[in-house]
What we know:
Keywords: Membrane, Transmembrane, Transmembrane helix. It is built from 21 helices and no strands. It is mainly α. The chain has one domain. α3 packs across α6, α6 packs across α17 and α14 runs antiparallel to α15. The longest helix is centred in the N-terminal third of the chain and has 23 residues.
Amino acid sequence: MNGAMKTQEISKSIMSDASRRIEKLREGKYIAGDFGLEIVKPPWFDEAKFTRGQKLSKDNLVCVFLADLLFLLTVFSSPRILRTLILTGKSSCPFTALNRYVATIRAVVSWHNGDIWNPEDLAHKFLRHVMTSHKSLYTIANFQRKEEVDRIEVEENPMVQITGMYKKIRASNEEQSRSTKCDGNAKNTNHITPKMKIQPDFDQAKERPRTSSNVQASIKKHNFSLSNDEFTPSKDTARKRSQQDHNPNFSSNYNQVPSSRNSDSKMSESVRSDKSPPKVDESIPNHNIPYVSQWDLLTVQYAFIASIVAHPEAFGAWNLPDEDVDGFIYYWKVLGFFLGIREEFNLCSGDLEQTRALILAFEQEVILPAFEEVDHNFEHMSLALMGGINMMVPLVNYPSALMYLLTALGADTATIYKSLTLREKAIYHFLNCVTYSCRVRLIRNMFSSLLEICLDLIEGHGPWWWPRILAPKNTISPRVP
């Protein structure tokens, strides 16, 4: 069931509330993530709901894996998140991408299966490792290498050949726009809304460096609503931050969104071990919107929850009880809290219907428009990801994965489908067959077991009975935090 059909099932009032909430969520662009937390149960913790969410994830492992993999492309569509990933240098070629995302898969699976509250458990160690990594990335991207990340471009790699698939998305938009103009009474389908192009073509993008002035001028000219801009550090901002760090009584005008936390969330402040990074001063011109902001973190959270909450059948999770999905939402509310997302920016702070409406609205207002502006950096990182995963799970490639994802989100992908090769179309339909066959629990469990075997094989310790001829040629070293 695609996004358009799901939206029709939700009342207009709830969808309207979701759209208004997204406008408040956008304010999270100006607030850094909260990285000073101890992993202890907050006062509002509900053991039963958390356990239900864990169980749903465990029982639908292959569905969650497929969804998390494809929804990583939505994370790549955010320019600011993409720059931080490029900065790390750990995702730009298939082999490094494989290392990075197998470690991510291992971490998420450990949270599904383990005890995050036990310091000796692998789940706790992985959660602590991810929290530390986010805090380190925040410091590097915003203070140590700020000017570099503002203008960073992915380096060419012979293992990654740009295909121009991102241009086909634009072609699909332009064709849909012409079709709509020719038929004045045409039905307003749920496609990626056509917009004027801001990004240059691939060849031009490689030659022309990005600057704050030309990007912001384009944004102003075209009334572009997403944060695709770049900013230079402000000396006044740095001075005020330094004063605040060294003087606890220093009073500044750092921007803080009016808090809507309930009494439970206020109580949870007691588990914070140190102060949050400084906020942005709105009064200073060209203020520094932080990397690894609340907006960035909730965008990543969206990628982990959208499939189960809003598009379960499209990713093989059939006939999920509402109570279990509600537990899944709560499960990711807790994980999001520890990964740095404040209550007012946590996508999982509402009930099932509210969260589903919020996700669908987020897709229509943020995710799909972002795909209109993707460039060669997006495509390079996507190709590296899919190339790496293909070493572990064959029959997955970038064009087919992108086609499947956009179709699940309700986008009009007719033009993109026509541009696929015969092999890419076959893989796309194979993915449809896999997710449909997961209606049968036995098949779903079989795929989940095969996935765990693939993870073991790529780390060089598969089962003894597995035929060597079917083992991957390249293996990686397991990462244990």
